[in-house]
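Aim 2, interim progress. The first record below pairs a target sequence with its structure tokens.
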Amino acid sequence: MPKMVRKIQASKELYAKAFGIVDTPKKFEEHRFEMASREWERMKANDSQECRNCHNFEYMDLTTQKPVASKIHNEAEDAGKTCIDCHKGIAHQLPKGHKIEKAI
């Protein structure tokens, strides 16, 4: 996704805050699952580019990871998975009402 498109999308988030849609913690929580789902879809579509700037399978040394992490990363790479497939909730608390297990 071009950077300009992402900036336009981000401006919609600022609009929501400025015009009272998510201007309180309660309102934010009410919309959190919807916002998180949209972000997860965006990250899936761009192969978790923000993560892969540093955490690319190509540069991972699986031998330095815990055995379970190494195994899962190896399987994820073989299956063509992207970071957000397994790591929802790793950077932010998962929203209430989600049907997802906690991130690895």
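The second target in this work package is listed in the same format:
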Amino acid sequence: MNINNLRKERERWMAWKNIAPLREAVQSLEDVECTVEFCDTIKINGDFGKEKIYDVAKMLMPWRKGPFALGELFIDTEWKSFVKYNLLRPHFDLKDKRVADIGCNNGYYMFRMQEDQPKSLVGFDPSPVYKTQFDFINHFVKSEIVYELLGVEHLEFYEEKFDTIFCLGVLYHRSDPVAMLKSLYKGLDKQGEVILDTFYIDGEEEMALCPESSYSKIPNIYFVPTIKALEHWCRRAGFTAFEILETSVTDTGEQRKTEWIEGQSLEDFLDPNDNTKTVEGYPAPQRVYVKLIKDKN
């Protein structure tokens, strides 16, 4: 696979009739001197007009990951992404490392990761909308983050291998989770690590829930494993170490509907009479966070 040819092909996505106006809006923004605070809310302070950036930000909806504050404008994203980031923060050190974020969305996590001074940061996400959101934020931040319109399946063909790969909230969207884990494995340098987060169900056996048509109203959820089944998937993919970092239950304090998204959110996905179940009757979303090592020797 020729990655450069794929890049050129996907760059043409930016000319799609629904994407081109978004690109033009971002490119029309003035160059403003800014200061940035990389805290729970990524705060960008500068002498820019609220009305113009508000109009552009609204064009780029839905905003899933964040939040962001641009002067007086607060983009209250669906996810309070700092909840997950702060939970994981004690478990990694990225200084001088080559880092990738798979399914990076608008780059919130990568903007936060800059505090660790990694050698490089590369985001992978084949979404023109999320790439344009990233470009909107990065217009002011002016980071050296590289954003690739590529997916996890392209990792093994990428020009460099990574020391640390983050893959947060992606695995359950893949119909072949072991193949995806193998792609992560192939994208790592020797002794590299993956920080992975995915849904899980309770149970001691090696089994997985296979939703009939949707899970929490999400149609592209294929498998929700027990932690033991997840470990076996990772071992089959070649990883030599599997460390459970944290587990959590997703609640409306972390994910909820705001004016910056379109449609429904977590409160609409759970049984209104029993929040331990989804509307389909499955166990409500729980997440497990694990660290995988390619070769611990």
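The domain at 9-293 is CATH 3.40.50.150 (Rossmann fold). This observation will shape the mutagenesis plan for the next reporting period.
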